[in-house]
Amino acid sequence: MSNATDNTNLNTCGCCEAELATPSVKNPPGQPALSYRIGVHGSFLRRMIARLPKQRIPDGDNQELRPLAALTTRASSDPSIALLDAWASVGHVLSFYQERIANEGFLRTATERRSVLEMARAISYELSPGVAAESYLAFSVDESDSTPNETSISAGTQVQSIPSTEGELPQTFETSQDFEAKAWWNALRPRTTKTQVIEIDSDEIILKTTNEKNKIYLEGVNLNLAPGDRMLLAGNNGQTVSKRVRKVEPEIDYDQTIITFEGESGSVVVEEGDTDPGGAPRAAERAVVASAEVLAVQSASANESIEAILALGLSESEFQVAVVMAGWVYADVLDYVAKRSPESFTGDIEAFVFRESAGIFGHNAPYYLSLPKEIRGSGLAYPHDWDNPDWNIWFDSIKNAEYSPEHLYLERSVSGITEGSWLALERPDDYKVYQITSSNEGSKTGFGISSKVTGLTLTNDDGSAVDKDPAFKVRKTTAFVKSEQLELAAIPNTDDLQAAITNQIELDSLAPGLQIGQAIAISGEQDDAEGVMRSEIKLLQSISHLDGYTTLTFTEALKYGYKRDTVTINANVVHATHGETVSDEVLGNGDGASPHLRFKMKKPPLTHVSAASASGAESTLTVRVDGVRWAETASLYGLNADDRNYIIRIDDDANAFVSFGDGKSGARLPTGSENVTATYRSGIGSAGEVLAGNLTLMKTRPFGVKGVNNPTDASGSEDPETLDNARTNAPLTVLTLDRIVSLQDFEDFACAYAGIGKAKALTIWDGVAELVYITIAGASGGEVDASSDLYKNLKNAIDAARDPLRPVKIDSFQPRFFDLHAKLLIDPDYEWDTVTGDIKEALVDAYSFAKRAFSQPVTSAEVLNIIHDVPGLIAVDLEKLHLVDAYGKQVGKSLSTILPARTASLNPNAGDSSDHFSPAELLLINEPGITFSEME
Asked: What global pTM score does this model have?
């Protein structure tokens, strides 16, 4: 022992003190993980070995001994060192889990869903279980005579999708409400003609439908009309106008003829609101139905009363009253209208053409002063001067008195003039129209001549006694007779239905029974894309009927433009949501002696549907105990001992559990055998977002229904909330506390709403007031349609939480896409396909929906940086970077240093559009538009 080395003072310089001290840990703010370990295996072992010679043990003489100072070996095979090594391993493991526990205690750094879940529950936030997709189902009702024209589609009718891609599973949707479907709603079409509304204004013919002067449309092309023919337009109110034809234009494709008259032509200025878009008379000028008016037509025949009511221009509710009061059913009215097939409604205007013209008897008599003086004024043949300025067509040249009983005589015999036909007298500077009450043929002597003539008895055009205008002279007047009525035609309507402008469609038939707020499906070929078919769902704002045609007005303008003649409208549309009902499943037995009983549902995942609540979702679960329904609640805390409530908790595997009270906070379950049952629906998340046309298999077929499909893609779903989303959304509920005050509150509230993936709120001055404009996107990256439950529920939830005096508008975002092309120089040691695949994957990920923000631009520097980060790349030359339009065509120059994305703003170019705002854009990469070439 005397030779033993004294190791107590080996650390004379103090350099090993740092080795003995426990290191301090510092964490700068904003880090994704906490550094909380005080050491690892190596540092623990070094510190323990360093402390071996310093370990002190007191002895009985108040002295300290250092028994381990003599242990000089540091060989790992030594038992003492091996023991320290083992404890260093223990320290390593404990410090690792200590750091993990510390990280799981903070929302930003937690990695376990359970940790986030428990922290969220501490602030009364439950991780979103997700929300089911929704869709609209368009049913077709059998139109055969063997089935009824109407049928009921009950809530819960199941329709299953047919998978369209490999690996996709069939998904079941169920209708959300009872619905009365009607065969005549299967395939409504826009009217392809316009009502020809003609107005006589003084001596002008105004075609109000097209706002043109002196033009009309006639049925048929072989009308035997030519320029110079005289025509007459007559109204039941006594107004008439007669004009000569200037131009005849046969339209063979439409089997009609366009007539242009002499006189001023071209368009006329019509006051705003004077006519409806379909050319029908202004709604304000139509008669409004009242009980007295409806009752007044009951004394007429059935057909006459139907005609009278069709002509009133009624809203749907008024029309329903009229039909009931008249004692009809819709099928009878539709059958009558179909047989009647009104093609035009001209405002009681009739068109006539005069097929014959003739002079007045005596127009070819010799000039009176040319007669010898000795016979003038003497004898019966030439008693009076028929060429004096006062002589006119109404006077007999022999008797110097008005004709009686006939009012005038034509120069010749004209056969075929009928009672009630029209006569037009024309002089060089004027004309006048009369109606013929009778005609007679015979011989007449006068004016020094004798001739076969036609005598006419007349009334004025309004039926009053003849106004014998003396300005019509015998030699200067031409009579137009043998009026033939021509059929006025409906004007072809070839106007496309315009996107963002059209919010009203006049149908080509009567479609009674529709309801305000009802959804309809519009399908057709896009107006600016040959062969591209589009569909959309619209909600009805109003319905009106006039003269056998129905006009539909929507709550919003069309999203797409359509070619009119390709459009079909299905009004047998029912809202449906993803999920299949599980009925009366037995959860278990009640036990009054046991608190907090908990049961697991057997068929996960539990369906939650969109709701107008702060969370945005509600479960479809109904729990009954001994046949009595218990109510779901967010928490059992604060309940009374007899409150029949339960809570739902969902684990990481999507299993749903139902928990009950303990008799203090919520009632205990009464004892019973299999007395706890549940009815719920199973199915949730993005799996339900099936493509348009895939929901075609009816698992339960209502009687009289022959088919079904979904005109648009299912949307509005959200998968169970992920950790990243929970980190963002959980604090938002504390910030808003389900109340919206600030602009940021609007955005936070929308972001935390189930089914919403992104939201951005701005204040915009609309020229009248400042409003809050919120741009939203669905959780799956799709647009949120205004007809969807998700949109309506979000709007209602925001309205319930905000200041009602602050106007708010919500719109779905506008997706924009860009293409790029780059030349690449790849390291020869790497494969071209592998590197380019990695680059494309990196670009798609960086510019995906999840990584992008509204109005965020794209720069060429950013793109180059992403490409350069991929291993195996030596050099890159970006040759193209540009936006593309909806059809993939380049917008702007081919290489831009920055691609902007528009923020939400007032649209100054909206014109007559129903929407004067432009939503924020989300700039995403067009994956097929990513191309590469090899750099030489």
From this structure: 0.79
